[in-house]
Model the fold of this input.
Amino acid sequence: MAESTPIGDEPVLGSLRDAWQRLEWANSDGEAFARVGKGLVETGAYAVWVEHDGDRWQATFRRLCDPAIEEEALDELARRLGAFLEHNRAALNYCAYQFALLALRKNPALDSPDLLAKDRLRADKIECPLVRNREQFRGHNGIRNLPDEHRDVLDAIQPYDGRNEGLWLLQELAREYRHRVVHPAAITPVEDMHHVLVNGVRMDTHDMEIVPHERLEDGDVVLRFSLPGIDPDADVKPQIVLTIGIDHVLARGLKGTSVLNQITADIGPAIEIIERGLARAYAEIAPIGE
Done:
């Protein structure tokens, strides 16, 4: 993107390179999160044992790894998750800041000291809101004093009506992370991927009962099922997919990597919408060729 005329010491569109840079850093942390989580699950740290009880079978989760090694991996996952959230949230705030700079270039009186403090447009105080309805958006302190044409662009990316769910996940996880470390859950089962092998062949089970868990602890029963006509001495192996989850109500039942992927999928197009809005606004005050 071409260099743009600075406002004070701040280039207008050029500074969006910083937003894209933060997204690149977020992607790097997301990839590290996936790599560390996959390594923890695939190194034999966990297992599922099966036993026959009367006319039913049950599968039990077992933790086989050194607790210190598991704790170290989970701490690294929490750190990567926090960095991922911070970089993505900062990228959106960078964009809102640029709208404030453009507005002040066009009308410096928006930050006049003669105005009440609540009515001044302070670029250094602005942030990009992510809210669930338009009423909340219009009243949000972070953008209340922006001109309508700039607020409309930010309105277009909001997670209203079920759209941009990744941005709502980002908002809520990042908000939570500001107050506490959002920990990856040690292990969660991916319930829609459970099945059973008998002597190496996938079998249909009878009355399969999936025992729900947000976070598995050693000895938890995760699955009960019947196999009519199958010898109790058969080689029965429940195939239970385990994954790293995230300890937050919005992420329950989801793979941790799926949560991060949803955020990534939604934030890139959102930044592109903002970038186009900034380009239009800048063209109005600094036409090409002027």
Summary: The radius of gyration is 25 Å. Residues 6-285 form one domain. The longest helix spans residues 67-106. The helical segments are 16-42, 67-106, 134-138, 148-155, 165-177, 256-285.
